[in-house]
Amino acid sequence: MGNSIETPLGRVKKTVAAAWQIPISDLIWRVALRGGRKIASVLPGQFLSFWLKSGSSTYSSINIFPSFFPIDQMAYQLSDERSKHLRLLENGIVEQVGENFQILVEGGEKIDNWDPADATLLFKFHLFYMEWLWYLNDEQFDEIFEKYWKSYRKYTCFGKGTPWSPYVVSLRAFVLGSMILNGTLKESPYYEEVIEELRAAFKWLKVFKEREVRGNHLIKNIKALIVLSILFGDEKSLKRNLWQLGVETGRQILGDGGHYERSTSYHAQVLTDLEDIRNILDATSKDSSREVAKAIAESTPWLEDTVARMKLWLSKMLAPDGQWWNVNDCVPTDSHLLKLLGVASFGKTAFMESSGYFVGNTGSLFTVLMDAGLPCPPALPAHAHSDTLALQVYISTLPFLVDTGVSTYEPGATRAYERSTKAHNTVVIDDFDQTEIWGAFRAGRRAEPKLIRAEDSGETVVVEASHNGYLFLEDSPCHKRQVELGSSYIKIKDSIFPTSSRGTNSQEIDRSSNEHKVELIFHFSSLVQFLGIKFSGSESSIGSKFELLLGVGDFNINLELESSVQGDINIVEGNSELCSLAKGFNSVEDALTVSLTCIGKVPVEFDTSFEVYK
To answer: Is the separation of the CB atoms in 94 and 151 below 8 Å?
Structure first.
């Protein structure tokens, strides 16, 4: 989080540091495409509407594939909260990402509101995705769709504002396009208007595809373009976007099958996108020209392999309770989605080397995740957190040590904290972030992790890694962490040591010249109870030792914390940012946080153990 006030010069330095890691080609695309969208935003609405509607006669027929249903649509239909959303939609209310607003107003002087003043940008994005239409059942669909569609067309303008952000257009085009493809809208009196909207979206995305952002955004753009190419029978566009999909998956899917943004949520999104593409291609190849069928067949081998590797990666990243591990920007999953994807827990020790995630499991009480991977791709820090060497722990199927999660994407103190080093189970030096997180989606300098060893003997699992995220400080301190997992215990050794220089080849030295504040932080699940302090003090004139008693479910845990220099322990329960856990967007709960803080010259060492006792 840093301990300095932001200055204009500081912001310029951060911007330069972030831009330095972006390839020149992406910077050129960024200037060109964002400039183009800026120009479009100030053009008269009538001009944009004329341009987007022109050339409609190019597409003479509409293809229909009744067997195609998107995975997310099936997940929405199976949702445990579907009945609640149906009631809200009947009353003109849309609820998404923990927010709900009255969109449609019947009678009186008030008008429909597609731009709620108090809504976050994330809610507005989800509003215009229109994925909430998937909650509707057959009996209600026509009536409710008519009300929202008529209002949407009245209060929005082609090419203008949030509804026409390329990412938003992509998701809405896929939702509406899939409803045309599978015949859901075949008898709707608004069929032609939807087709007109989709033709406009097709033209818009061809021009404003997010080449400058890449990541899951570009995959969503390509997915929408593939569906629209199939819908409108544009063979040239289909081939071009299948080719680009192959290029992007090769770029974005790592050797271990993980998505390069290193978030389980966004990994699952991209996996779902690829499964949807595979399913629509399968339906299309059975009823297409020989040339199109050939293009589809040529894309199938790498697509099949990519989907299989991504499913295996996700299975390894499922925690004992069936939830995925919460890493980087991530929100809890719906079990229905995992079932629809055919992903079940791997349940064994696994190391995803390219992603940098290590999951340790001795087949007994404890399961551990350690993050020893890069924070993000060089040019895409949007969903990165400053969490190198952070730990998460389950005891049986109960979350114990947890990531504090994400409750907002809005710029501000909450977003800054949730991405910060202090919000994760690792070590903070001098109140700075190991990776320089700033803004809502940016990062400057970044920690570089190094795996030292990862071993599984059957009875114990050991992983050891380090990072250099604090080289910019005086004495260039580095952090090394070793975790040992046994049948009923976890031992953690953290070493913070000075190095000889701030370069990449710096060497460890005996002692620093300056004092540093070194803080070891543990965030616990809301299920964990603080039962008391067993021992607090020093066993020598040099270091400190503390023993705490904790409980979770039917388990009692003895937590021992030792430091090589004198330290102070801080136990916080509720009513503090430091012990706030996100359950999802706009939803937080209080929990327990324990930290041990030392001020002195490095090296400083912490020895921590968690052991189940009767």
So the answer is: no
